[in-house]
Specification:
Low-confidence stretches: none
Number of strands: 15
Helix content: 55-70%
Structural class: alpha/beta
Strand order of the largest sheet: 2-1-4-5-6-7
Distance between the termini: 21 Å
Strand content: 15-25%
Mean pLDDT: 86
Number of helices: 17
Shape: elongated
Largest sheet: 6 strands, antiparallel
Radius of gyration: 44 Å
Length: 558
């Protein structure tokens, strides 16, 4: 529900901060006081189009903030969470309109597109009258209202589940059918590419091993010459081999050790070096003996490396990615080779799913037709109570062959408000008052099934009075037991039944005009109801009548 609205520099409002309560709230005031300013401001906050003309004269920017309580409103909390706009259950909407900058909208302090404000607004507030937020003007909302009234959720879930399966299979069959004409060319190419990669049979780490072997064979002469020179230095130089030199040095140190024992460690280190040098020399001799020129092997490696790199360039992947590519192509080849089998199987499965969908959709359709008759009669009866004695409400169900998640039919609310007038779509009702009363008649019947927490009725009582006005008030108060109801009214019979009474008043002087809205105390409320009852002079009898109406209204439970 709407907890608070703050308006700054909007039209005739300088600054207004207003707390709202649960139940039924009425806004009253003198003609021309600007009773609809609250609805207009809320509409702007929820994403309605605006231009700089709504900004108060002399100001650069108008701003509206609306704070909503989301307790128990799971769908709205889920939406905020999905949009990453959630803030610990808070829902604060802000809209700014500037003279020299684009209009901006915020949800919980984060800048959002106007479409996001509108989406959220349609879940939070339903404005009944000639306003964009009136959900019952939309066919999808009419269908949802009928289904909610009839308790169709289980049937709809069944239809939607069959539809999703049918749609997925339909797309799969279309894909298989479309690919059929292109499959042969693709198969030929895939078979060639897969055969190429299978014949390559690239092993893990093979490239590294081949490159190392290639480097060795390609530089064999340098390896021989260099190794032979090092071998001479280590052990094969008869006059000055490093191993012999180290051994002689170790022997000399051993003799000197008898004079100073501290040379023992040094002597042992040199002797170990002599031994290791000798061992290295013998290993190097064995290495040299194993080196043999193999031109044929070098050619094989060159060819293998060339083939690997050619295929890598051909498929535009790294060598390391070739095995994964081979698996991918093999999978695609297997799929295409099995495509005819898959196509036939998919077609059979699609036919079975289509049958199941139609069974579920027909069951939903039959239930909708039964519910539509009951709802139409109930709404027509309410219209009669609300002063449209010859009014008639009908629900048209148009069956279509086009499958949808919600079933096979389109739902449209049709209304005839006057005798001799053929029923026409609810959206074409010309009178804002009639439209609001028809919406009220529908809401009263479906109140227990709706999900929008705040309902606003803008001058729902236009053109009525007396007993019918009191019936309207009772219906609005009854709605207030389930939802938050805000109503702009001229009728004291309606105003006397409210849980909260707000008065709109305008102050003017030669320089400026300001509209303000304030909650009424109990005594001030009596004065306002008395004013609404009429007369140039408010008498004690008028005040007594006003008190009686308020007291009787507060005792009204339905």
């Amino acid at each position: 529900m709407l907890r608070n609205i703050h308006i700054r520099h909007l039209a005739v409002v300088d600054e207004l901060n207003l707390d709202l309560q649960p139940g039924m709230t009425v806004l009253t005031g003198e003609t021309g006081a600007g009773k609809s300013i609250l609805i207009d401001a809320l509409s702007l906050a929820l994403g309605d189009r605006a231009d700089s003309g709504v900004i108060r004269a002399g100001q650069a920017r108008a701003e509206i903030s609306a704070d909503f309580d989301l307790d128990g409103l799971t769908a709205i909390n889920d939406w905020l969470n999905e949009q990453e706009l959630d803030d610990d259950g808070q829902c604060l909407i802000r809209r700014t309109i500037s003279r020299d900058a684009p209009s901006r909208g915020y949800i919980n302090g984060r800048l959002v597109p106007m479409q996001s404000l509108r989406e959220l607004g349609e879940m939070l507030v339903d404005i009944h009258g000639q306003h964009a937020h009136q959900s019952l003007l939309r066919r999808d909302a009419q269908r949802q209202a009928l289904d909610a009234y009839a308790g169709h959720q289980k049937l709809i879930d069944g239809v939607a589940g069959q539809y999703r399966q049918w749609h997925s299979l339909r797309e799969r069959l279309d894909e298989l059918t479309t690919n059929r004409s292109q499959r042969e060319d693709r198969l030929e190419l895939l078979r060639y590419q897969v055969q190429e990669l299978q014949e390559l049979a690239l092993k893990e780490d093979e490239l590294t091993a081949l490159e190392e072997e290639h480097d060795r064979l390609a530089n064999l002469n340098q390896l021989r010459e260099g190794s032979q020179q090092v071998l001479q230095l280590l052990i094969e130089n008869e006059d000055n081999a490093l191993a012999d030199t180290l051994e002689r040095a170790a022997s000399d140190l051993e003799r000197l050790q008898s004079f100073d024992a501290r040379l023992g460690n040094i002597m042992q280190t040199v002797r170990d070096a002599a031994i290791q040098t000798s061992e290295a020399g013998h290993e190097l001799r064995d290495y040299l003996e194993g080196l043999s020129l193999d031109p044929e092997r070098l050619r094989e490696i060159d060819q293998r490396l060339g083939l690997i790199h050619d295929l890598s360039r051909k498929h535009q992947v790294s060598v390391a990615e070739l095995p994964a590519l081979q698996q991918q192509l093999e999978d695609e080849l297997a799929t295409l080779e099995d495509a005819d089998v898959a196509l036939d199987a998919t077609a059979r499965e699609l036919a079975a799913t289509e049958t199941a969908y139609r069974i579920a959709a027909n069951k939903l359709q039959a239930s909708r037709r039964r519910a539509a008759k009951k709802l139409a009669k109930a709404v027509s009866d309410n219209m009669h109570q609300l002063g449209m004695k010859e009014g008639c409400f009908e629900i048209a169900l148009e069956t279509r062959e086009h499958y949808a998640a919600y079933g096979l039919e389109r739902v449209e609310f049709l209304v005839s408000a006057n005798p001799g007038q053929p029923p026409q779509p609810l959206a074409k009702i010309a009178s804002g008052g009639e439209l609001a009363r028809i919406s009220l008649a529908i809401q009263v019947i479906t109140v227990g099934t709706g999900s929008i927490p705040t309902l606003i009725f803008d001058e729902v009582d236009v053109g009525i009075g007396g007993g019918i006005a009191e019936i309207v008030g009772r219906l609005l108060r009854n709605l207030g037991h389930e939802r938050q109801v805000l109503c702009v009214t001229h009728q004291p019979q309606v105003a006397s039944l409210a849980h909260q009474h707000l008065q709109v008043h305008k102050q003017s002087n030669k320089k400026t005009t300001i509209t303000d809205v304030s909650p009424l105390t109990a005594e001030a409320r009596v004065d306002e109801i008395a004013r609404m009852l009429g007369g140039l002079e408010i008498t004690e009898q008028t005040l007594s009548h006003a008190r009686e109406m308020i007291e009787r209204g507060q005792r009204t439970s339905v």
